[in-house]
């Protein structure tokens, strides 16, 4: 299940309680596309709950979307205990002008505070 919430108008909050597959990324993209129409730039908070992983297809689809739409994103916070997902996010953002930070689940409040500014 993908749960979404708003912290502020320009901030999308998403909590994912299943593996991050290509289909899940399609749902995230749909949420982002709805907001892109209304704001010049977005901040995104994505939390992948404990015990869930990212498929290669999901990772590649997410990276492609992020690169194709990077002009619309200001900050992205990824909250997960999946070390491989954190490393993949950090590596994929090397060439983007989007401020991205990864957090462990225990630090979700810090991530929420940072993404809300």
Automatic annotation (TrEMBL):
Protein name: STAS/SEC14 domain-containing protein
Phylogenetic classification of the source organism: Bacteria, Pseudomonadati, Bacteroidota, Flavobacteriia, Flavobacteriales
Source taxon at top rank: Bacteria
Alphabetized SUPFAM superfamilies for the sequence: SpoIIaa-like (SSF52091)
Pfam families: SpoIIAA-like (PF11964)
Source organism (scientific name): Christiangramia oceanisediminis
């Amino acid at each position: 299940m993908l749960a979404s919430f708003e912290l502020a108008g320009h901030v999308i909050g998403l909590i994912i309680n299943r593996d991050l597959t290509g289909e899940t990324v399609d749902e995230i993209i749909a949420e982002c596309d709805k907001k892109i129409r209304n704001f010049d730039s977005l901040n995104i908070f994505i939390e992948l709950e404990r015990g869930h992983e990212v498929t290669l297809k999901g990772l590649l689809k997410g990276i492609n979307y992020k690169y194709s739409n990077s002009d619309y994103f200001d900050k992205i916070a990824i909250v997960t205990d999946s070390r491989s997902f954190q490393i993949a996010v950090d590596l994929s953002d090397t060439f983007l002008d989007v401020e991205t930070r990864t957090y462990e689940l225990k630090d979700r409040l810090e991530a929420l505070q940072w993404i809300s500014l």
